[in-house]
Amino acid sequence: MARRRRVPASAPELPAAAQRTLEVGRARLAAAQQQRSPEARVRATLATVRRLADECAAQAPDDAALLEQVAEWRRGADRIDQALTIASGQRGLARRKMLARVVARTDALAGEAFDRLVADTGHRQVPPDAGRDVPTG
Question: What is the rounded (10 degree) CA torsion for 53, 59, 60, 65?
Fold first, then answer.
């Protein structure tokens, strides 16, 4: 079975809105992992990645690099959906092997999306003294 990435419980250095997005996404991911079948877990995880992609795009609609990354996450989720459909039609050992690869790809995509959210929103954080015109020294 694929090794699962650990999603940070919180990132205190993030702004409140980003912190909330991270917490909600983490809760959705935890709920997805409680699904009974591997197929249901993958579908729920992909839904979480897609929501996270939408939220990232909404936070920075003028960031072309981020929008391209979000589009890549969506394409990746679509490819995983297609692979899941194929795997679901298999039987026995072939099915288990394909599902293991689909689960690993899904976990990697979710981990990438969460890592980017934490890294990207941390970079956009405004320092407390930003905008001051008065020299501090």
Answer: -20
Residues 6+ away with beta carbon under 8 Å from 126: none
- Specify the pLDDT at position 31: 79
Angle between helices 38-59 and 92-123 (to 10 degrees): 20
The pTM of this model reads: 0.71
Spacing of C-alpha 50 from chain mean position: 8
**pLDDT tens digits along 10-49:** 545 556 666 777 777 778 888 788 888 899 999 999 999 9
Q: Which amino acid is at 109?
A: L
Specify the amino acid at residue 130.
A
Q: Which residues contact 129 (CB under 8 A, 6 or more apart)?
A: 136
Q: What is the amino acid identity at position 78?
A: D
Sequence letter at residue 34: Q
